[in-house]
Specification:
Length: about 350
Amino acid sequence: MTKKLYTLVAIFVVATMLLAACAPAAAPATPEKKFLACQVTDTGGIDDKSFNATAWKGVQDAMSQLGIDGKYLESQQQTDYEKNINLFIEEGCDIIITVGFLLGDATKAMAEANPDQKFSIVDFAYDPTIPNVLGQVFNTQEAAFLAGYVAAGVSKTGKVGTFGGIQIPPVTVFMDGFYLGVQHYNSVKGTNVQVLGWDPAAQTGLFTGNFESTDDGRKMGESLMDEGADVIMPVAGPVGLGTAAAAMERGGVYIVGVDNDWYLTAPEYKSIILTSVLKNMDITTLNAIKSAKEGTFQGGVTVGTLENGGVGLAPFHDLDSIVPADVKSELEGVKKAIIAGELKATP
């Protein structure tokens, strides 16, 4: 009996092994698709040291903080906008970040044609709003007002200047605020500091017509310096770096950066960067991605202000000593008055 039992057990074991060998292998588990955030730049490119780069920092922050994937496509010309957006739709991006006023029409067309695709556009919003698009806009005039107040206090010639890349609202609001900040300084101090390059009442001024040519920025800066401006705020993305180069060569002229802190992003010019008007697009972009990932995304508009930290003024860094003490002490009061609506940063 024992020998028969051993034989039966052996047969059972061999049969089990044969069945296991013949069974189909289990399919490997399909890795879960990671959330994908995709950015389409305007023609300034991803390394423009301006709003494309700042928005991309928001995507990168989302990658590190939220564990998502991110990628971008650079637009070489305006005809690339809709094409690049469509490429990302076909790729299955969970949210598409488009950057800049100039992508407004392409984003609207693609969003309306693809209502299930989530979008967020930097520096633009729609009225009426589009359900699947979150517009990111910024009251940069508020921070530019502070910059104008400081520029007027620092100027030795009694003339400061500004110019834009293209005459569009996200550019001219900087110039409005800067101009009005200078005028407020004049009213407080009894001075007559002039602003060259922009007239907010007529909405006319100096523009290079692009956001790419540093040569144009150099020429515009040289023209303003020839007229006597010793503080200049270029609102033209990388074009302004040409202005900074010209100011560095001329000497005795200071630059107000825009969008991000030029002391950090253009360190070769840090010795002449008075301050920068900050547009914290990285924060609003990160928040848009986070809402899409968490399922709380809603179309509409989000507004960055002095009050919520969406805009601000960068430190004076190496030039802190040339800013008069009374100007520095008055800035907080000016900021509070703007937030309270007691001072108007738009004409």
